[in-house]
Specification:
By secondary structure, the protein is α+β, with helices and mostly antiparallel strands. It has helices at about 20-25, 55-70, 75-89; strands spanning about 35-40, 45-50. It is elongated and about 50 Å long. It has a two-stranded antiparallel ribbon with strand order 1-2. A hairpin with a 2-residue loop joins strand 1 and strand 2. The protein has two domains: about 5-50, Pemi-like Protein 1, Chain: D (Ribbon); about 55-89, no CATH class. It is about 45% helix and about 15% strand.
Length: about 90
Amino acid sequence: MTMANIASTKLSSKGQVIIPENIRKKLKLETGTQFVVLGEKDIVILKKVSPPNIDEFNSLIKKARKIAKKAGLKKSDINLAIKKIRAKM
């Protein structure tokens, strides 16, 4: 790990952490970048989340449809599940 990969920062009163500029530039992080946050004991890890490209998305949808068909799910089952979840909100 080089010094360019290490920096310090502080937690604000609003619970925000600023990622230092040298790290943002090196990792090409832009405003709106989303992260998964993992926490364990005194360790916090930010992992950048990237949406799948359209080919990956289509492949995931195709697999999901195949699994749903094999399980006997119908479109009406999905719509009913969505209505139930929304009613709980």
